[in-house]
């Protein structure tokens, strides 16, 4: 038990420590997939398969670890882990299937996802799934938390709002991809406010999760998501401006409506 506590605390520390270097390095160097793909990053795999494999620990590891927790059969812990599993069922299974069925020419040259990026994503998901699952099923104090349901439902509203925006925006983008003919300017809804509503929605989701779990693990995940996605949104915004110039809507912000 002591060794698990030590593993948990060291993993938590690692989650907080990798945020700042991720943020700084992502300001200068974009993960080489999607709009920022470029040669020189080694072998690649089919993107839907990459998403499925690298996100999969969030399902299998969570389901493997969860039953070993003290609170694994407490209804509160089961309710609490559900949004996490729901998000990752969508990201691991539904999203790759949608990518697959909407990819016009599956083996288009240069369309691969670098194995090295997928391995890094996989590693992060192992760390994060361990922390979130272990917090919810083992370390959270349910008896002493008189605000549990307030935080749960308050956070859940934020989480659902973020997930709705994330899923809607991903669907629009993948739909544009299906049309073929290269990248286009996405239009309508949240795209009139920011260049990357899918990333905005993702950040809002994990903010809701941090409130729901009321934990350092949840907060660390939210901050890491921001450290990863804000610089990528900035790079995407600049990429759109360079590619589409005058045709790109001037009022559109990077990721935070009206502000940034
Ligand atoms: N929690 C985290 O830290 C984290 C990290 C990364 C991603 N994610 C989530 O994973 C999801 C996917 O991320 P992503 O970085 O792959 O998103 P993305 O770059 O916006 O791409 C999403 C899909 O839409 C296509 N696409 C994007 N912009 C397009 C345009 N203007 N015209 C036509 N097609 C376009 C992309 O094709 P191409 O692949 O050909 O560009 C890709 O298939 C998002 O929901 C994101 O929030 C989460």
TrEMBL record:
GO terms for biological process: brassinosteroid biosynthetic process. Residues 113-260 form the 3-oxo-5-alpha-steroid 4-dehydrogenase C-terminal domain. Its EC number is 1.3.1.22. The chain crosses the membrane at residues 12-33, 45-66, 78-97, 109-127, 148-169, 206-230. Keywords: Brassinosteroid biosynthesis, Lipid biosynthesis, Lipid metabolism, Membrane, Oxidoreductase, Steroid biosynthesis, Transmembrane, Transmembrane helix. Signal peptide: none annotated. GO terms for molecular function: 3-oxo-5-alpha-steroid 4-dehydrogenase (NADP+) activity. It is an enzyme of class 1 (oxidoreductase). This is Steroid 5-alpha-reductase DET2. InterPro entries: 3-oxo-5-alpha-steroid_4-DH, 3-oxo-5_a-steroid_4-DH_C, SRD5A/TECR. Involved in a reduction step in the biosynthesis of the plant steroid, brassinolide. It holds the Pfam family Steroid_dh. Belongs to the steroid 5-alpha reductase family. Pathway: Plant hormone biosynthesis; brassinosteroid biosynthesis; Hormone biosynthesis; Steroid biosynthesis. It catalyses: a 3-oxo-5alpha-steroid + NADP(+) = a 3-oxo-Delta(4)-steroid + NADPH + H(+). PROSITE patterns: S5A_REDUCTASE. It comes from Carpinus fangiana. It is a multi-pass membrane protein. It is found in: Membrane. GO terms for cellular component: membrane.
